[in-house]
């Protein structure tokens, strides 16, 4: 589509994507730091046994998993910066049809961040005392 009256402006969508990627990067850093601290507190013999058990089960083990998490966090950071730099280069008024793309997004808050960036809440809530208090009574997966 080029300049048609239907669809949504592309620049705000790409700007929203940059914000989502920045939030995902920050959330990944928090997870990485948390699990890194936990693993540092595990005795090396226990960590070695856990690694061996993981490899026996066909998994790479906790240290390899943390390396992959670190790589994921770095990729999110690079993508966020790339997309943020790209957004202002998109010509004003360039529109794209979003209906089929919207159907691919299963998370309402993520869809709002991308397709209604002015009204959207962040796709990832920042950690802090409020989030810690929510989890004090146990792990909340959903």
Keywords:
two-stranded antiparallel ribbon, 142 residues, mainly alpha, elongated, 2 strands, 63% helix, 6 helices
If you had to describe this structure to a student in words, what would you say it looks like?
The protein has 142 residues and is mainly alpha-helical. The protein has one domain. The protein contains six helices and two strands, in the order E-H-H-H-E-H-H-H. Strands 1-2 form a two-stranded antiparallel ribbon. It is elongated. The two termini are 38 Å apart.
Give the overall shape: elongated
Percent helix, as a range, is 55-70%
- What are the secondary-structure elements, in order, as H or E? EHHHEHHH
Class per helix and strand makeup = mainly alpha
User: Which regions are unreliable across 5 or more consecutive residues at pLDDT < 50?
Assistant: none
Short description:
The protein is built from 6 helices and 2 strands, in the order E-H-H-H-E-H-H-H.
Write the layout of secondary structure elements.
Layout: E1 8-9, H1 10-40, H2 44-56, H3 62-86, E2 95-96, H4 99-103, H5 108-115, H6 129-135
Antiparallel strand pairs: 1-2
Helix pairs in contact: 1-3, 1-5
